[in-house]
Amino acid sequence: MHDPTRTPGPKIIAIANQKGGVGKTTTTINLGAALVSEGMRVLIVDLDPQGNASTGLGIEPEDRTLTTYDLLLDDVPLTDVIKATETDDLNIIPATVDLSSADIELMSNEKRSFLLHDSLRQPKMDEHEYDFILIDCPPSLNLLTVNAMVAAHSVLVPLQSEFFALEGLSQLMLTIREVRQTANKALRIEGVVLTMYDARNNLSQQVEQDARDNLGDLVFQAKIPRNVRVSEAPSYAMPVLDYDPASKGAKAYRDLALEVIEKNLAQAA
Ligand SMILES: Nc1ncnc2c1ncn2[C@@H]1O[C@H](COP(=O)(O)OP(=O)(O)OP(=O)(O)O)[C@@H](O)[C@H]1O
Ligand SMILES: [Mg+2]
Asked: Which residues does a 6 A CB cutoff place in the pocket of ligand 1?
């Protein structure tokens, strides 16, 4: 659906929430795979030193010789850091624990907030013909996450359906506002997606109600259920869409992908 009316290049979405374990990586991998199943070409950028997205897509540590770190700090060209995955049209720039020192090394660099922006928003990117780039952020509002927000067109926020879920959001929104005021005026919020939703649990319903009351249309209709197939898939190095396409988790991520595509077509119109 590469949209010629948008500024050239793919739509870049940062998947962010400073809270740990809320489903950022799971959403990055599976939204990526679901977009591919709708005919899109997708690049995932692993921006977390934990490297979970890389592991979940089967990139072995010994195959991570060139990583996001090299792209950001050593000016290694895009073509050299991008790796194919088992899923056609789903590529990844992997990460290793080396990236944990990047946060500090970036401090002394005067372009510190713009390194990922400059790496991704460059004419060479067009040659790869991606429709979407999804950035898996670390569980922090550090300089890596700021780099993602400066590089991105929008932020997609996974919200775990549990107590305190909404509390961290104000800090995240504050950071988005700061980035808008300083480095990326056009940054939008793609939406908030409820993750690990359990329809039988009153708490999940309460979190959903609060989120919809406070955030309105920003909350995606699609909800990602707590689903054991989703949590098993990474140990088989696959998205849940390939591991168990008929599972509730796979269906939910396909629904989310359709909403994302629809939103982007509407924005482009
Ligand atoms: N819908 C789901 N159903 C069941 N388990 C899930 C679901 N989504 C995520 N999980 C599990 O929850 C854990 C945390 O998910 P994930 O790694 O995606 O979160 P994260 O926000 O990326 O974490 P971190 O902040 O450490 O990067 C993982 O073990 C994952 O398999
Ligand atoms: Mg993660």
From this structure: 20-26, 48, 50, 52, 139, 195-196, 224, 226-227, 230-231, 249
Q: How far is CA 117 from CA 151, 183, 217, 244, in A?
A: 4, 10, 28, 35
Task: Please write the tens of the pLDDT for every residue from 208-242.
Answer: 999 999 999 999 999 999 999 999 999 999 999 99
Q: Which of 95, 82, 88 minimizes the C-alpha distance to 56?
A: 95
C-alpha to C-alpha distances, 127 to 79, 82, 104, 130, nearest whole angstrom: 10, 13, 32, 8
- What angle do helix axes 143-151 and 169-182 make, rounded to 10 degrees? 60
pTM of model > 0.90: yes
Q: How much is the CA Rg of the chain, to the nearest whole Å? A: 17
Residue 265 Cα to ligand 2 midpoint, Å, equals 28
Distance of CA 155 to the CA centre of its chain: 8
Rounded CA gap, 83 and 59, in Å? 8
Parallel, antiparallel or unpaired: strands 90-93 and 11-15: unpaired
Q: From edge to edge, which strands make up the β-sheet containing 188-195? A: 83-84, 90-93, 42-46, 132-136, 11-15, 154-160, 188-195
In this structure, what are the phi and psi dihedrals at residue 238, rounded to the nearest 5 degrees?
A: -140, 155
